[in-house]
Structure formats: C-alpha cells, structure tokens
Amino acid sequence: MDVVMDFLATMLGQLQKPTLAFLLGGMMLAALGSKLEVPEPVYKFVVMLLLLKVGLGAGISIREADFLSLLVPAVAAVVVGIVIVLLGSRTLARKQGISHMDGMATVGLFGAVSASTLAAGMAMLDAEGVAYEGFIGALYPFMDVAALVTAIVLARLSAEKKAARSAVAQGGGTVAMGGGGFPEGSGQTLGMVRQILVDTARSPAISALLLGIAIGLFARPESVFEGFYELLFRGLLTILMLVMGMEAWSRLSELKGVAHAYLLYAVTAPVVHGLLGFGAGLVAHHLTGFSAGGVVLLAVMAASSSDISGPPTMRGALPEANPSAYVGASTGLGTPVALLSIPLFMALADVFIGL
To answer: Lower Cβ count inside 10 Å, N or C end of the chain?
Structure first.
C-alpha cells in the first residue's frame, strides 16, 4: 500500500511541476477548441535560446572538469545513449502499426537525458550524504547528443531507403539488397549516411546545441549565461511545453490504435535503460575508480528521457514524427517511472560497490 501511495504522490508531484503542467495545459486548451497559438517565429526563437542555454551549460561543465577523469565516463555515456537508440530501433520502432519515424523519435528522447530527473537524483544522493564527481553534469551532452543524433540519422536513413526503393519500383526496376537496401551498393549507402550526418549537424536544433557547447568549452560565457540564459530558461521552457501540448493533442487521434505499445515501452524502458547505464558505470568504476554516486547518476541519466533539448530537436529534425507519441511517452509516462527507479539504482550501488 505504501508503494502505491508513493507512486501516486510522485505522479501528483510531476503533474504539479511547470514542465508537465504547461504541457497538459496546452493539451487542455486544444481539446476545448481554443484558438490560442504561438507564432512560428516566436517558437523557433524560444527553441534556439533553450538549446543555446543547454549547450553553454554543458560546455562550461566540460571545460571545468578534469579531462582524464571525465574521459571514461564520457565514453560510457556516449555508448549507452547509442545502445538505447539501437535497442529501441529493434523493438518499439519495428512494432506493427507504429510509424518508424514516430518510433525513432520516441526512442531518441528515451536515449537522451532529462536535466530535471538528473537533478532529482543528485538531490536524493545529497540527502543521503552520498558523494559523486563534480563533473557529472558534464556527462549530460555526451549521452544526450549521441542519442538524438543517432535516432535522427537512423530515421532519416530509413526514410531515404524507403524513398529509393519506391523510386526504383516506380521505374520498373528492382532494388539490390546486398548493399544495405540501396540501388548502388555500399558506396551509395555510405554517401547517404554522410549526407544525413551533415544535414543533421546543420539542422537548426543540433546547430544551436553544438554551438553552445563549443562556446562554453572554448570561451568564457559565464556572465551572459548566468545573467541572461539562466534567468529566462524556466519561463521559456513553459512556452515550449505549451506549444508541444497543443500540437500533441491535435495529433492524438493518430495514436489510438497503438497507444498500448507506447505505454508498455514507457513503463519498462526507463528501468532497462537505467540498468544499462548502471552496468556502464560499473565498468568505469573498475577502470578509473568512478564513485558509487557517479554510477547511480549515470544510471539515472540513462533511465531518464529528455524533456528540454529533445522535443524541440525532434520537432525540427523529424517534423513528420507525431509529438503525441514522443512527448506523451517520454514526459508523460517515462519521467515518473525514471524518478521511481532512482532508489533501485541506489540499492544496486550499495550491493555492488557500497554507498
């Protein structure tokens, strides 16, 4: 009974937080037929500021961290982010009745990181007096960008394959499957992957994120970061969530036939992903002495799903994807499950390492 009450209390707490509250508020307005809308130029400006803020903060954290101590956990974070997306591409994205684009956008968010969930994990460790490395926040972009870029590239690659097959079929020819499904073999495949990577890096969302990381890493933007971006961040985020909520509701009907698949994924994926992160953290612990608290927080990052950089990135890079799928599954369901799993990772760290 206590477990049920704790779960309900956590759910209620999430509903009361601005991020989810504005998301639900936007959905409610759309459901009631409100004519409220945020102009597209304003939305794009808000997204640019938010992603620059995330990138700047990450770059500053990376610059201030000890390189050698950061290297192994950073590599582990990148690998976990990519593995989560690859795992999702073989499960949710291949589920019958689910659009591959919707599925890849969803697994991309689940591979990326929620800053609020990471902050909750840090707060729980602080309350228990558990120490962790000061550069933990710098691991955020490694897992986040790796997962988002991998998901976008795989989604775009799949779309290009489908378009190539369709073009060949309409031309009366056949597709040579030996070269990965492209008409001209592996050379065509590599060229297409290279072009997708270039287009992804040049996309507005990823460009803003990478620019922020570069400036935070090589310049000294602390004054503008603290005096401008930090002050505006929470307010701008509520506008973003309001827009995402309205858009999600407008496309909600498209999910009625497959909602159960997203529900199952959103409930199970955070725990599975967290265990992957925990395993990677254990490897880093044995190689470099990575702390038990660090292992827990790496697991928390893996279990979380992006609620800041992810949604606008996916909306910009994969406009065909349905926000009801990736926002609803990640923010609406995945976040509470990830928060509830934090004590599990703490218990595992106590068993395997000792808190």
So the answer is: N
What does the angle CA 323 – CA 330 – CA 257 come to, to the nearest 5 degrees? Answer: 60
Q: Which own/partner pairs from 2-7 qualify as long-range (CB within 8 Å, at least 24 positions apart)?
A: 6/340, 7/336, 7/340
- The CA-based diameter of the chain, rounded to the nearest angstrom, is 68
Q: What is the DSSP string of 37-106?
A: ---HHHHHHHHHHHHHHHHHHHHHHHHHS-HHHHHHHHHHHHHHHHHHHHHHHHTGGGSTTS-HHHHHHH
More confident residue, 43 or 170: 43
Nearest Cα residue to 314 out of 303, 328, 302, 298 = 328
Burial status of residue 187 (CB atoms within 10 A of its CB: 0-12, 13-18, 19 or more): exposed
Both tokens assigned to 145:
């960008």
pLDDT at 135: 80
- Report CA Rg, the chain: 20
Q: State the pLDDT at residue 180.
A: 40
Q: Quick one: tokens of 202?
A: 């040049």
Task: Please state the pTM of the whole predicted model.
Answer: 0.74
Q: Which amino acid is at 23?
A: L
